[in-house]
Amino acid sequence: MPFSPQRIAVFGASGAIGTAFVHECLDRFETAKVFCFARSPDRIPVHDRVESHDLSLNDLEGLKARAEALKASGGLDLIFVATGQLHSPTAKPEKTIRSLSISGMEETFHTNTVLPAMIMKYFLPLLPKQQKGVFAAISARVGSISDNSLGGWYSYRASKAALNMLIRCAAIELQRTHQNSVVIGVHPGTVDSELSKPFQRGLPEGQLMRPVKSAALLLDVINKVDQSQTGRCFAYDGTEIAP
């Protein structure tokens, strides 16, 4: 039976992939309501089935309160975490270990690992216990330890590898109480966004993907995945990424 979530939460809903994912959900699921969270709520898509909220890791009480309100109003069927950082004005991908800094690593882990962990903490219990529910967080192929043959990008790789471990741990715990729910990481491909813009030069023809295509493919993966695949990480084409 096709997965047809009616209550969807999207974190990072103002970014390229997050925004595209919101629109894809609205198009596919004609009666679904989408609860959108972003650090810049004014950039969240405007729609009569969209409810906007601000997102701040510095306001855990606010995050907890949002989760409790959503639980009281019916819970969630799908949670999609599209937050992530590869670079910022104060944290660049490190090509060499000599470039590592405490502040840069903390900033990257803060966004890529700690924030998704806090979202898991408060929102995973909102998934249904008796039917399929999905938690999917944007990970990355470069977070694979066994597939790393180039090195570099220390903080980004490590933060995504840590996220993958959190996903695995949460999946094991959740299956004890939510036997039909799935917790996965998803790799969106190289998407044309602010995150990838400084690294697009030299990409092979056709490798750069539009956000709308990536979002559609990721939703296809979410639709097909089942409980036997929980705790794993999948690319946009449905192939599993090695730990």
From TrEMBL:
Coiled coil: none annotated. SUPFAM superfamilies: NAD(P)-binding Rossmann-fold domains. Transmembrane segments: none annotated. InterPro entries: Fungal_SecMetab_SDRs (IPR051468), NAD(P)-bd_dom_sf (IPR036291), SDR_fam (IPR002347). It comes from the Bacteria. This is SDR family oxidoreductase. It comes from Pseudovibrio japonicus. The gene is csgA.
